[in-house]
UniProtKB/TrEMBL annotation:
The keyword NADP does not apply. It comes from the Eukaryota. This is Vacuolar protein sorting-associated protein 55 homolog. The chain crosses the membrane at residues 25-42, 63-79, 85-108. One of its GO terms (biological process) is late endosome to vacuole transport via multivesicular body sorting pathway.
Amino acid sequence: MAILVSGGIVLQILACALYDNWWPMLNVLMYVLLPMPLLFFAGSDSSSVLSESESPWVNATKFLTGASAVGSIAIPAILKHAGVICWGALVMELSSFFVLVFSIMCYIKAGGDNDYNVL
């Protein structure tokens, strides 16, 4: 899992360094914001995030986490559409995102529990 995380970070940095354009590093902001709703709103009852809930705080957590995840894909796409980055940087940014998401999924799966106890 450490190799996957390291690979995702290297792809993120290479997307900037190879094309001499550091705008794709804006995506790191979304990587930092992504777990924040889970940390602030889910609290110790993190199993409610994966199930139906009537709690407005859990619903807000799901919405903000989803918005951050979509933003992680949308920022490079918007930068490419605006002509700020090239195709190679876009591909590296998106592959970095998917490698990091895959490493998080491996971490959750390696927990061995059926509930979501990673927080």
